[in-house]
Amino acid sequence: MAAFVFHPGYYADLYGHVLQVEKFRKTYERLLAAGVPEDAFLRPEEAKDEDILRVHTTEYLADMRSGNHTYRTRPSELPLSPEIVRWTFLAVGGTVLAAREALARGLALNLSGGFHHAFPDCAEGFCYFNDLAVAVRALQADGSISRATVIDCDLHQGNGTAIIFKSDDSVFTFSIHQENIYPPKQRSDLDAGLSDLTGDRDYMEVIENHVPRILDVHRPEIVLYQAGADPYGNDQLGTLKLSKEGLRRRDDFILAECRRRGIPVAGTLGGGYAKNPEDTVDIHVQTAMAFREARI
Hints:
Blueprint: E1 3-5, H1 23-33, E2 41-42, H2 49-52, H3 58-66, H4 82-105, E3 107-110, H5 131-141, E4 148-152, H6 159-164, E5 171-178, E6 190-194, H7 200-218, E7 222-226, H8 244-260, E8 265-268, H9 277-293
Parallel strand pairs: 1-2, 1-3, 3-8, 4-5, 4-7, 5-6, 7-8
Helix pairs in contact: 1-9, 4-5, 7-8, 8-9
């Protein structure tokens, strides 16, 4: 059975910011109401400095630890309050925990994380530390894995992840995203930039064409899956036109292809900025249920 990772500290008061931080708690509460038992949820600790420093610079980590808002932290477009710093360290620790649980159980999902815009020496786009990269490097450092694949299905390209793993043959990065929006694009191992108004059918055609081949050729020992909710048709930050049903098909397909090959999957919820915040929660809940219902 899949493990879920959640902490009440996945929260910060952002005063009406487009980033809907309350979605993490609401997703957790909805899962409990749907019958997911309390013991299915694991509580993470804050990420360790030694794990973060495999990806990020000493100077940048020092800014975060001190709450010092510098040129390295400002591109986050978020304040650097104690709440946000704590949430960041907890969420990164949560993705590391989810990755370790995925190796043990087959499937695990962090109900936060997916900070794929963060670069080694600076923040960007609501992301302070790149938890996907930190988790991969933590598993590699202790010998748990040698090869990993990042499948990033957020609305926005995983530009920070692409830079971090550039020229690293041990980690394959795949990003499927809307092309003509933020961020300025970096080069992943494979990028699928989608045109405006792309809907369910064309989106799934790209997923079905690429994901099985990536898994067969790269043969990862774990997949880090960024299950963004923001390709949804009523998201505020993009103009893709996926339905909730289409996003569930995406999740089911990716999980099935990984499990068919015996590849563990650690997921993160990533972005989601729907005009109606409850739509974002709906999508995150169905992603969690896809993990729970997937055959291991």
